[in-house]
Predict the 3D structure of the following.
Amino acid sequence: MSKSKFVIDKLAKLFEQGLVSYKDLSDEILNILRSKRDEIIFKMKITSKEETEVQNRRIENLEKKLEKIEKSIKVKSKRGKKL
């Protein structure tokens, strides 16, 4: 009986605080989870999303340049064999 009363009291406090709708409650939970995620990322010193995107673009550009260089080397080697 005391455990159910405890749960009911907690729910009553939520209603009193204005967290009546499901959306408000879910928004509050998401905010808590985001802050915890940010804390973990900060502790792990992981790059941000923007930094990761910039690094991905740089890698793609380098891969394209490498492919061009490899193609030019193949073309030069084929020309040498034909002569």
Summary: The chain has one domain: 21-82. Helices lie at 2-16, 22-44, 49-82. Residues 49-82 form the longest helix (34 residues).
